[in-house]
Amino acid sequence: MFFAWLKQYMPRSLYGRAALILLLPVVSLQLIVSVAFIQRHFATVTEQLTSAVVLELAYLDEAVSQAEAPQTTLRALGRAFDVGVRFVPADTVPEADAYSWFDLTARRVMSELHAGLDGLAAVALPDDRRVVLWLETGAGVVEARLRRDRLSAPNPHQLLVIIVVLGAFLSLISFLFLRNQLRPIYRLGQAAEAFGKGRHLPYKPAGANEVRAAGAAFLDMRARIERHIEQRTLMLSGVSHDLRTPLTRLKLGLSMLDSDEREPLERDVEEMKQMIDAFLEFSRGAAEGEAERVEPRQIVAQIVEDFARMGVNVELGVVEETGPVRLRGAAVRRAIENLIRNAVRYGNRAVVSITTTERSLCVSVEDDGPGIPEEHRADALRPFTRLDPGRNQNRGAGVGLGLAIAADVARAHGGSLRLGESEALGGLRADLWLGR
């Protein structure tokens, strides 16, 4: 439970996590060693120095209490012990000890003084240079002023400063080496992301052996996928091209028949031609053209205008400003056209909208048709799948490739095609998500 709560505050990037792995143990070790060293070293030095001063002040207390001339004895011992001493009224003694909160050895000094001097009334450590204490003797209250370096090691904070500065410098050097090790991984990620969006980013394996092996595997995979796409395109294009010749001969032969016999056969030939065109379109997929900076708003507006000129009831909905986006314009246009054709085939009205996020672009096509049940939406995206029993066909039949082509284009741009229910029109809502 604790780790689940902590996980949300962990860095998301590889750089951040690597830096945390590097810095957290180093900083923790430095702090632990520093605190332990200061506690052990400075505490021991402080105890030894304070013990020597306690012996001197204890002797001064005893001598002044038994002397016939306390003032003279006090002055003599003060000069001998290099301590500034004088008698002060009892009402000038502070009620409590005083010290700065950032003084690392103040508490140890006061503890040793109180433990060694029974008549010690109060101690003040105003800074790291002076110590003032009030000692009750048999002759009166004595105020003693000493140099701080006689009681504790000077400037204990310097060790912490040195450790922090040195740790930061070494961490910077480590981060530079770490960045050089992570840069090949970052470049591999960029190349994989670009390939997922249909772009070919130059990449050369570099870095450690493991990273080089992953980079070489990525290049092999990318080459195999590109060969597969090319072979599929050539195969389907060849088949589609070869079928056009006998279809042309059939149309010529049918033109010589009587109209009553010719019309049903011509409809069959025309349907076969539409199927071949759909196969050819599917074979091209998203491989047509190179990705370039285009304006999605202009593409969608032009598509809607073209359909409107053909008498199709299509209108433009909410369109957000997106700015130029790197896309394969021809492939995206074909995908949107297929979604609109699918919408008006099963409905009477279609609305096209554009929404954006920080990393993606969404083109939505809604219709007022019967929609697709949720349990059949995954099947609708498969090639050559037709859900005719579940949807009334108002305007001709298809071959089951319209949504598959759109989904293929979306995947080639690092996105997906999602089917849902239109809240505004009550029919199908097709969201074409494209990576930006």
From TrEMBL:
Database matches in SMART domains: HATPase_c (SM00387), HisKA (SM00388)
Membrane topology listed for this record: Multi-pass membrane protein
Domain Histidine kinase: start-end pairs: 238-436
GO cellular component assignments: plasma membrane
A family per Pfam: HATPase_c
Catalytic reactions of this protein: ATP + protein L-histidine = ADP + protein N-phospho-L-histidine
Domain HAMP: 179-230
Gene3D superfamilies named in the record: 1.10.287.130, Histidine kinase-like ATPase, C-terminal domain (3.30.565.10)
Ranges annotated as spanning the membrane: 159-178
Top-rank lineage group of the source organism: Bacteria
GO molecular function: ATP binding; phosphorelay sensor kinase activity
Subcellular location, principal: membrane
Known EC number: 2.7.13.3
Subcellular location: Cell inner membrane
Keywords, sorted A to Z: ATP-binding, Cell inner membrane, Cell membrane, Kinase, Membrane, Nucleotide-binding, Phosphoprotein, Transferase, Transmembrane, Transmembrane helix, Two-component regulatory system
Protein name (record): histidine kinase
Species assigned in the record: Poseidonocella sedimentorum
